[in-house]
Amino acid sequence: MSAGRTARERVRAELTREITDIARRQLALDGAAGLSLRAVAREMGMVSSAIYRYFPSRDDLLTALIIDGYNALGEAVENADAACPPGDHTGRWLAVCHAVRDWALAHPHEYALLYGSPVPGYKAPVDTVAAAIRDTVVYGRIVSDAHRAGVLNPPDLCPPVPASFGRDAARVRELMPGVPDEVVARAVTAWTGLFGWVGFELFGQFNNAILDPAPAFDHAVRCHAALLGLPV
Hints:
Elements: H1 2-30, H2 37-44, H3 48-51, H4 58-82, H5 89-106, H6 108-115, H7 129-132, H8 134-149, H9 165-172, H10 181-202, H11 213-228
């Protein structure tokens, strides 16, 4: 009985993986809004009713793809950070930024699913949160480690943070313990600047403007590092 259950679980895992692989190809052709369980079933040679045993709705399939995407990006970021010496905070920041861009360029349709236009009618469930913050946890750890090591020296070029930001900073600080509000604000600016750049590059906003994006991107994330107060 145990062996039978294991075989069934293995078959289910293989079919689930095949379904999500086909769904990713659909993303490339039709976008997230065009994702169809019936079309996936046709490509697999299954009756449409059978696929609902694996994913009861299109939204369940979208959620699985989103979680897979966040986990893949999070793993890329974690690996980039782990490959750097722990005390090289600037190197860790740059490695993480380049890992985000590299993953996005290699998986543009999955990146668009995560950070592009919302899918009409779809609301991401809380199941996606743990995967969604994997990369942010790494980023927060870099900032927190650098602050604790005393290497952050933010330049005096920003106005004081608004008083209302204190409540927000307290929540963000869960990912970067001990970091003062001013640095939390700069960290949020740097992190969103990273994804803003990647999104502009990936979705064509730099076309006919930034002709050599790789060195320009490296310069941008070094500027973000300087804003944080990291030595560059």
